[in-house]
Amino acid sequence: MKNITLHKGDLPADIDLGKVIAVDTEAMGLNPFRDALCVVQLSSGDGTAHVVQLSRDFDCPNLKAVLADQSRLKIFHFARFDVAMMKQWLGIECGPIWCTKIASKLCRTYTDRHGLKDVAREIAGVDMSKAQQSSDWGAETLTDAQLHYCASDVLHLHAIKDGLEAMLAREGRLELAQACFDFLPVRAELDLEGWGETDIFSHS
User: Which residues contact 95 (CB under 8 A, 6 or more apart)?
Assistant: First the structure.
């Protein structure tokens, strides 16, 4: 499969992903306490996706080092979930973070459609299939369709970030967006500590 490299267990130590890395995850479900993290996919924005299929002992020091490296920016779509899953299953705090979903909500105020498929179509001109979103990511062997699906989730994030960043700048909301990104590790920690559905900032 062109531009998709599957790695079993960990990233090779000699891969250079640069200073801005698109990242996404796949898990057995949406409950970070019950549903194991299965796959982490990364791209440096060069058209290549690296898909890491995790073993259940989560012995992946090279991957953990990249994700926790504070000198490398990580681009996510809905980072809140991914960051919580990485903390729960990999035992790391991923950062720094740039979240395209938060950015979309702050600058694309003319729509309520902020899913990756909709944002990618408008900002990057890419039609993405979400057919494999709900599939068995814990399978011993991932299918070609699964690999293409998870790769597509990171291959376009650099372009999406660039487009949304320009919109944020135009609307004067770059600093607000950055403050939200900086808060994401705390938001993920609140989720893991039991305040996922509680607005602790509300009056009641």
Answer: 68, 70, 74, 83, 184, 185
